[in-house]
């Protein structure tokens, strides 16, 4: 049974996976598949744990610092599940911001990504959600988020174009309003 702390219903997922195996013409009772429904249920528990977390919790602790230039963390790896096909997409996220008297621990940025990426997701929303939360919570002068990802719904099925990357960006504050600041952050990301 799902609980408030663990609201994902693994028994229900396992039953659904068992039905999928029947629907594709497989025998879910054969040795190699016997435990697959439970394994998939545990995997979904892990892949969708961000549904039940508040990313803002990771932005509450700051350090006072009189630093007002760009802080950039590049190439933070992530993986997520596309809500359209329930297939993975993965890649790198780059986060830059200009502080206004306080900085956040760098690992907290990665934790924010983990929360948002562990939900059924689309890349555009992922990019916007991270940028909006950080701009609001950091009270930064500027925030930039750039996401580069390969979508298996495009590389393994459908048009089957491996190596294709989707790039999205979300800019807030000075990075949105000031073209030289925008050019600087994009140059640093590359």
Structure description:
The chain is of the alpha+beta class and 190 residues long. The protein has helices spanning 10-23, 36-47, 106-117, 123-138, 152-155, 174-177, 179-189; strands at 62-64, 71-82, 88-98, 102-104, 120-121, 142-151, 166-173. The strands form two sheets. The chain has a five-stranded mixed sheet with strand order 5-2-3-6-7, with helices on both faces. A two-stranded antiparallel ribbon has the order 1-4. α1 (10-23) crosses α2. The protein is elongated.
Distance between the termini: 47 Å
Tell me the strand percentage band: 25-35%
Total beta-strand segments = 7
User: Which quaternary structure do these chains form?
Assistant: single chain
As residue ranges, the low-confidence spans are none
Question: Structural class, from helix and strand content?
Answer: alpha+beta
For the biggest β-sheet, the strand order reads: 5-2-3-6-7
Q: Which H/E pattern describes the elements?
A: HHEEEEHEHEHEHH
Shape: elongated
